[in-house]
């Protein structure tokens, strides 16, 4: 089956610093990847759609200058949380549909990254 | 406003019984609906997908129904086992021509006891 990895699996950082989270599709290519955020006991909220070779599209209410997304290759998307604050502490999850299967197919999710900002 | 609601935050059932989870939505016209399983501290894992023109889909002990008139999907796990304990999420895709974007429900935490 298709595997998506995330790195790191958890990170603790100080307020004001930036944190980069990587999302990799290990055995398939993806022109599109999605970034979600999940607060405790809440559902996944889509933050942005990462598009290989072009700018990401952000959901309403998500600050694009704070959450920088880069999709440099067909297997890697990165999310950088800039000037992190305690309220950014959350579980960040990426997903991807395999290339050519971006309609009417399931998405493969990474294991998530737990970010704690102190 | 758009809303996706799953019947209860938590559901406790006895091993061997059938668990039935509900997903209701308002102000959406999904092309299809998906169900995922999420274990604590992990990403969701795909279980089943059902299209708007399908009434029912089965996979082993799992069954999903989709009623676009009622705007509801039911997710059944038959002969439930303690290993089925997890949070189950429904997700809608209102595909508009580009890659699908999923909107998730709040989830139902299922606990199967011996």
Descriptive overview:
The complex is a heterodimer of chains A (118) and B (114). Helices cover 0% and strands 49% of the residues of chain A. Chain A is built from no helices and 11 strands. In chain A, strands 2, 4, 5, 6, 9, 10 and 11 form a 7-stranded mixed β-sheet that branches. The termini of chain A are far apart. With 118 residues, chain A is mainly beta. Chain B is mostly beta strands and 114 residues long. Chain B is 0% helix and 56% strand. Chain B has no helices and 11 strands. In chain B, the strands form 2 sheets. In chain B, strands 2, 4, 5, 9, 10 and 11 form a 6-stranded mixed β-sheet that branches. In chain B, a hairpin with a 6-residue loop joins strand 4 and strand 5. The model of chain B has no long low-confidence stretch (mean pLDDT 91). Chains A and B meet through strand 5, strand 9 and strand 10 of A and strand 4, strand 5 and strand 10 of B.
Strand content of chain B: over 45%
Work out the helix count of chain B. Answer: 0
Number of DSSP helices of chain A? 0
Number of strand segments of chain A? 11
Profile the largest sheet of chain B: 6 strands, mixed
Helix share bin of chain A: under 10%
Comma- or semicolon-separated keywords:
heterodimer, A: 118 residues, mainly beta, seven-stranded mixed sheet, four-stranded antiparallel sheet, 0% helix, B: 114 residues, six-stranded mixed sheet, five-stranded antiparallel sheet, 11 strands, 56% strand
Task: Provide the fold topology.
The complex is a heterodimer of chains A (118) and B (114).
Chain A lengths: L3 E4 L2 E4 L5 E7 L6 E7 L6 E7 L5 E2 L8 E7 L2 E6 L8 E7 L11 E2 L3 E5 L1
Parallel strand pairs in A: 2-11
Antiparallel strand pairs in A: 1-3, 3-8, 4-5, 4-9, 5-6, 7-8, 9-10, 9-11
Chain B lengths: L2 E4 L3 E5 L4 E8 L5 E7 L6 E7 L4 E4 L2 E6 L4 E6 L8 E8 L8 E3 L3 E6 L1
Parallel strand pairs in B: 2-11
Antiparallel strand pairs in B: 1-3, 3-8, 4-5, 4-9, 6-7, 7-8, 9-10, 9-11
């Amino acid at each position: 089956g298709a595997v998506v990895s995330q790195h790191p699996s958890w990170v603790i950082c100080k307020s004001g610093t930036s944190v980069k989270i990587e999302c990799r599709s290990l055995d398939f290519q993806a022109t599109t990847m999605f970034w979600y955020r999940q607060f405790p006991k809440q559902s996944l909220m889509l933050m942005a759609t990462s598009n290989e070779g072009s700018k990401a599209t952000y959901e309403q209410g998500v600050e694009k200058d704070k959450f920088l997304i880069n999709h440099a290759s067909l297997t890697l998307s990165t999310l950088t949380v800039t000037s992190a604050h305690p309220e950014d502490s959350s579980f960040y999850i990426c997903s991807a549909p395999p290339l050519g299967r971006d309609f009417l197919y399931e998405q493969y999710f990474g294991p998530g990254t737990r970010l704690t900002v102190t | 406003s758009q809303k996706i609601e799953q019947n209860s935050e938590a559901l406790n059932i006895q091993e061997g019984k059938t668990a039935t989870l509900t997903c209701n939505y308002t102000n959406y016209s999904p092309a299809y609906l998906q169900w995922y399983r999420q274990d604590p501290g992990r990403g969701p894992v795909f279980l089943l997908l059902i299209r708007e023109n399908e009434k029912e889909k089965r996979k082993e002990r799992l069954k999903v129904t989709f009623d676009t008139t009622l705007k509801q999907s039911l997710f059944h796990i038959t002969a439930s086992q303690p290993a089925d304990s997890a949070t189950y999420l429904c997700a809608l895709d209102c595909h508009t021509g580009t890659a699908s974007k999923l909107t998730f429900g709040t989830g139902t935490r299922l606990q199967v006891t011996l």
